[in-house]
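ugh ok fine here u go
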Amino acid sequence: MKYSFTLLIILFSFLTAQAQPPKGMGKSDPQAKGVLDAVSAKFKTFKTVKASFTLKIEDAAGKVQGSKTGTVMMKGVKYRVSITGQEIFCDGATIWTYDVAAKEVQVSTLDNSSGSITPQKLFTNFYDKDFLFVLAPDVKKGGKVFQVVELTPIDKTKPFFKVVLEVDKASKTIMSTRVFEKNGNRYLYAINTMNTTTAITDDTFSFNLKKYPGVEVIDLR
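structure:
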């Protein structure tokens, strides 16, 4: 499986449409917006986030074609994503993408425009301009109740036609995101554990070349 962080990019890339609903397309469900607004407000109260996740790709029949696990840490605009074979560091200004097998790290500048792709956007109000959304019936799993929000992209040129979010009703946190592609594939990003009280030092989000001897640096800035 060579999709690694590419799948995360696919999941986060649906945040960048920046479109406005055309006339006659319909309106979003106010109840669904209420759920998403609550998620965004709750996330913004966290000083740090450390979560473990599972990333899966499924075919049209729901059969798992591949699966990987990883961790994500966030602090303000800083983040670090670790998944088998790859690590992404961002200190809020610079992004380092480290490929373990290739022993190389690509360095680029973070685009601070509204369309930039960051893990933080998965948990905040990315939905306002890019989607129409409706509230589906709640589901129960493992003794917990999850609110289900279905989002339809306004930009119909996107490679997917639907995104389904499951929100823990008690904690107001997105626990899973499933993206339905037009080609039949489905990408599932599920949170396994989340800690919002862990102290995380700022140097966690920077790539220290001294800790990775022999790594080639490809500077794209």
